[in-house]
Write a structure and sequence with these properties.
Elements lengths: L4 H8 L10 H7 L15 E3 L1 H13 L24 H14 L7 H4 L2 E7 L2 E4 L7 H20 L14 H11 L4
Antiparallel strand pairs: 1-2, 2-3
Helix pairs in contact: 3-6, 4-6
Length: about 180
């Protein structure tokens, strides 16, 4: 059974949009926000990037982040061929966004960045005052992840994985994502 984004939002009792912007906007909206990310109350989440992506996906889309692992040709490790559907196209765009980042390949998966889950369906990248190379890199990774989460939230949560029809990639996905052929 697929849940549409409005149905997912209704289950969360909150209908909202993804709102990127500067930290000052977040502070202004602070009084209206009922749910904050992180274990330090008012502090933004600060975890490794891959874990942050999973948390952001859950916050914005309401879907289980693991439902995207190994989905289509571009969700998961590497990518090749043509996207199989709009969700897979979101994954391709996310890969492209990461490829445009000034971050090293290792940083893409390990560099922490700051973000807030304001309410279910609404996340915000928190831009630090420091403009160090690491801060700029983390800022861009956060924005890539936020755009990806926003993109997939427009579609129902995947209830099954759609396989990539591209033969070479299908074998790679099977190896890395534990699927049997």
């Amino acid at each position: 059974m697929y849940l549409t984004p409005p149905e997912r939002r209704a289950q969360s009792r909150t209908a909202s949009d993804v709102v990127p912007g500067p930290l000052q906007d977040l502070r202004a909206a602070d009084g209206a926000s009922s749910k904050r990310g992180g274990r330090h109350g008012d502090r933004a989440r600060l975890r490794r990037s891959i874990v942050q992506l999973a948390s952001m996906l859950k916050c914005v889309s309401g879907c289980n982040p693991l439902s995207y692992r190994g989905y289509g040709c571009f969700c998961g490790y590497r990518g090749d061929g043509m996207p199989v559907d709009p969700i897979d196209s979101c994954c391709l765009e996310h890969d492209w966004c990461y490829s445009q980042s000034p971050c090293s390949k290792l940083s893409l998966y390990l560099l922490p960045y700051e973000w807030h889950c304001l309410t279910p369906g609404m996340a915000h990248c928190a831009y630090p005052a420091s403009l160090s190379p690491h801060a700029h890199c983390g800022q861009q990774l956060c924005q890539c992840d936020l755009e990806f989460a926003s993109c997939v939230s427009r579609y129902p949560c995947p209830r099954r994985r759609i396989s990539c029809q591209h033969r070479k990639l299908s074998m790679i996905h099977s190896l890395f994502n534990g699927k049997k052929r």
